[in-house]
Records
---
Amino acid sequence: MTDRETVLRMRVAESIEAERRLLDSDALELTALAAGRVVDCLTAGGKVLLFGNGGSASDAGHLAAELLGRFFVDRRPLAAAALADATAATTAIGNDYGYLEVFARQIRGLGRPGDVAIALSTSGTSENVVRGLEAARELELTTVALTGASGGKLLDLADVCIRVPSEDTPRVQELCMLLGHTLCEIVERELVAAA
């Protein structure tokens, strides 16, 4: 076996073990709860705003696309947006107000009571993500966080804080996407069944 294969086997084994721990955590129950909040929001004509930095920004965009486009079945588009995908807004706000405000200002402009704000942060401590969730709470959005085991500052800010059982950034991101994909599947199933 080559060194490359050894690394691959080691990382796959770590991922499988993290998923086993996920089965024994409260993250599944909390993801189901979050999915219900998203269904309620969308049924009432609200929208889902997702945000995060770096890989979490990409994951937020991926999940927004699953809702706005489709996951498994053709159906009406679901109102969802990833805030980091708004390049002009993000860079203008960062330039004029500072990077710490890039999500909070967008939420203040786009969010309405009853909408859902979903923050993704592996550490739960990214200050611009924290400020975004604070703004969402102020505006009476439902707040959801997908984060690592500690939850960081998001633990006390989110109505539903889904903490995956890892602090290893790649494993946290993998588990958050697994739960995020499953949340999208549940939302799609329930909304299609109700249509």
Note: The first strand starts at residue 48 and ends at 51.
---
Amino acid sequence: MAAFGLYSHIQSNRRRSIVLLAGLFFLIYVMVYAGALVAEALSVDADLATLMQLAWSDFLQAAPFATVGAVLWIVIAYYFHQNMIDALTGGRDVTRSEAPRLYGLLENLCISRGIPTPKLKLIESDALNSFATGMNAKQYSITVTSALLDRLDDTEIESVLGHELTHIRNGDVRMMVIAVVIAGVVSFFVELVFRLWFYNGFSFRGRSDERRGGGAGVAILIAIGLLVVAYILSFVIRLALSRSREFLADAGSVELTKNPDAMISALRKIEGRGELPGATSAVMEMCFDNPREGFGELFDTHPSVDRRVAALVKFAGGHDPGPIALAPQPGDGGGDMAPAGPWGSAKSLPETHSLPGTGDGDTAIPPASPSGEADDSAASGPWGPHRG
């Protein structure tokens, strides 16, 4: 990821996105064929070759309906996805009089690039996060949490808004909505076929060996394999669409704000504090940071904050202050303790002290040495000494 040469990366990323989305449609057709193969195996006494031919004939008849169904699903998402997301997250429209600071920062960024200003939405939450949604210029909106506004300063909020604007400018938001919708179709088909199979499996197992025919069992195993592979690939494709774009969005934010240090500081403050109550995994994948992690690097929905910061330090010349501890606020119930993860509470962050005169304790620097002087081994950064 680099702050320069950004647009060539964007074009390449868009081409890959189109290919991946076409692949998701292909997976839907795999679902249909697998379902047809299961249906034929449960109803026809024949060998494997005959069952596969019958399933192919069924697929050719069902494919147009599957295509129409998938397109209809996308049309519904096109017009109503924002309502569904707002219902899950509690997001609401925020007026200029309610958030003049937020509107001013966003409008300045949009004016500087001559792009329309998206709508603004607010979620009343202790989580620190944001995300962009929409399928066209009239629908685009940026949603932020109330805690994000309370805990980040203006330059950091500007960097977060620049990140979300870059997602909109790059077409990431539209692609992610479509990808999530189509992946939802795949998941629905997989669950439907498995439910039907398990429901009819008892009658299938009750048949005599002569009645089943020689190819039914093998046909069902093939169908199950196709379903499992299609489901896993749809999940991986959806994650790939999300992960590759975060580096570009960070770089785009730096290009807009000319302030890599503010982007790094925002990442460090939001790190591990972005879990939105009630949000599904699909919504979290669209967020600025997704603290939910799967099994291993392959299933991480976002690059780690450390990797994103390292890229900004290397290519944009930013400075990393390291993990930032936020001062406790009413309702936090934990102060410097990082939010609990899927395997329990994370370790408490190292002891930190706030900069003199800040008053909020939000920005952390390493503690002084026993002699009372700051550690000279730390390089000086925009927020005080920090370790290189």
Note: Residues 202-212, 333-388 have pLDDT under 50 and may be disordered.
---
Amino acid sequence: MERHAIGPRRLHRSRWRGWLIAPGVALLLGLVFWAALIGPERRPAERPFGAGLPPIAAERAAPPFPEADPIAIARRAEIAAEEARLSALRAARLALEQEVAALERTAAERRSPPVPTGPPFPPLRVLLHHRANSPTAADAAAELARSLRASGIEVQGLRGAAFVPSTPVLRYFHEEDQAAALRLAARLGPGWAIQDFRAWRPQPAPQTLEIWLAAE
């Protein structure tokens, strides 16, 4: 079998083809290697939807908004209803607090009769009673007597008693002395009780009041 000899021209074309194919293969291998290196994490950032389009075109090309979630809508409605209920409860509580405050003021006014106003105390004779055999009670009575005398109220005397009330008491014996008793109790301070002793016999002279200090 005879072999045909390759002419110089044919050999020259074969060499040119080899030189052209080799760089293409090398370039292809380089691209594959580069893609393997950068991986999916190093891909260039995707452009936002509609980027590069005019505003009107981008708006028309934007996908429609998804429909609202019915569960979220129901949840928002429940929250709104609960907030409305709490607001109504707060308003009702405020109204009740105001009503209670008004009732407390009315009750306080009823418990404390108005103190008569007018000129300084009329001439009064005050008898001051304290617990007998109690140095502390005697000292308190002496101090109160000094304070009353400094105010122009006559203190006829201090008397010890075997039994004294648990609450400080101011007694009057004539109807016309009630206003003076109220004013004196207001001057002595809170916590004093007023006792009507008009039925007591024998009655002392008018403008006579008795102060009874509480047990010490």
Note: Strands lie at 125-131, 154-161, 169-172, 193-196, 208-212.
---
Amino acid sequence: MLTRAWGIARSVAMYHGVPFRHRRMVRFYRQFLGPGDVGFDIGAHVGSRIPAWRRLGARVIAVEPQPDCLRVLRLLYGRDAGVVVLPVAAGAACGQARLALSTATPTVSSLSRRWIQSVATDPGFARVRWDRSVEVDVVTLDDLILRYGTPAFCKIDVEGFEAEVLAGLSQPLPALSFEYLPPAHDAALAALAEMERLRAGGYRYNYAPVETMRFASERWLEAGELTRLLEHFRPLGRSGDVYASLHSGVCSLSN
């Protein structure tokens, strides 16, 4: 119990306790979200993006299957009518799946056994243990769109399960992001392939390293160019997020 409390407390401190982080997020996400928009936070964890998105006037659909994280989300945002907290995971099809939990480091809990096997050999994950699991309900992005409308922006951070989440989407979204982790490089390429399926090359991409809220490229890139950029960051061991936009003119490089 103490380990669980410490793990979730560390996540709250990490994502809500950094000075000026909220301000940077508001500036960064303003290019994607505005008043009246809907934002999907897939893998909301403890809701680090929610305050910035709400500040921008967006309604937030927070999808999170981890019980401990759900308690935090409901405590922080349960009285906000503009935030919907859903105790489910997202995937390629509706049903149920087993979520592997890391009690001490809940940020790396995952539905993907392949992803866990990939990162478990990386020195950065040497102390991580997936020591328990829970059965969770799974919905698709298409289901969420039918219920809540098309999001102006969708953040997907689900520890190697990004491609499966995107496989549950049958229409292109205006903009979205998914996580990139160097030890799981192939998982990001699989997610990129799903993006290209959705729009047949119509998306343009950029990359923001490790919560910097700054794009690595001065212009939006085609899929092949993004792949080469990720190959550059791969040996550096720097994680981050891939951003995709159908309207690449939204990019503000002065964040």
Note: Residues 2-250 form a domain with the Rossmann fold fold (CATH 3.40.50.150).
